[in-house]
């Protein structure tokens, strides 16, 4: 798994995950259907794992990445 999430993307995912887990599993009165509430909670858990591991499987499949690797110091001295 090659890292494909930038730190800002990870921060947003943690916030969205917390909200999804809260409404999906803790305060389910806002969602009328139990299945939908569980799906929202699972979405939050998946996003949380993506944020922790800095890897989004969907980004990996589509080839997207918000992470920019720093160039090595050796590459900069070759100029």
Give your account of this protein's structure.
- The protein has 79 residues and is mainly alpha-helical.
- The protein has one domain.
- The protein is 65% helix and 0% strand.
- It is built from 4 helices and no strands.
- Helix 1 packs antiparallel against helix 2.
- The longest helix is centred in the first third of the chain and has 20 residues.
Shape: elongated
Find the structural class using helix and strand composition.
Answer: mainly alpha
Name the average pLDDT. 88
- Main sheet makeup: none
Distance between the termini: 31 Å
**Estimated helix fraction:** 55-70%
Please compute the radius of gyration using only Cα atoms. Answer: 17 Å
| Overall number of strands | 0
State which percent range the strand residues make up.
under 5%
Structure characteristics:
about 80 residues; elongated; about 0% strand; single chain; mainly alpha
Q: Gist?
A:
The chain has 79 residues and is mainly alpha-helical.
Set down the secondary structure blueprint.
Layout: H1 7-26, H2 34-53, H3 57-62, H4 73-77
Helix pairs in contact: 1-2
């Amino acid at each position: 798994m090659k890292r494909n999430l930038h730190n800002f993307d990870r921060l947003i995912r943690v916030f969205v995950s917390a909200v999804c887990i809260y409404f999906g599993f803790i305060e389910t009165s806002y969602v009328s259907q139990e299945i939908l509430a569980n799906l929202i909670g699972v979405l939050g858990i998946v996003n949380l794992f993506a944020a922790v591991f800095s890897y989004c499987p969907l980004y990996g499949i589509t080839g997207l990445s918000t992470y920019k690797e720093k160039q090595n110091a050796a590459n900069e001295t070759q100029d």
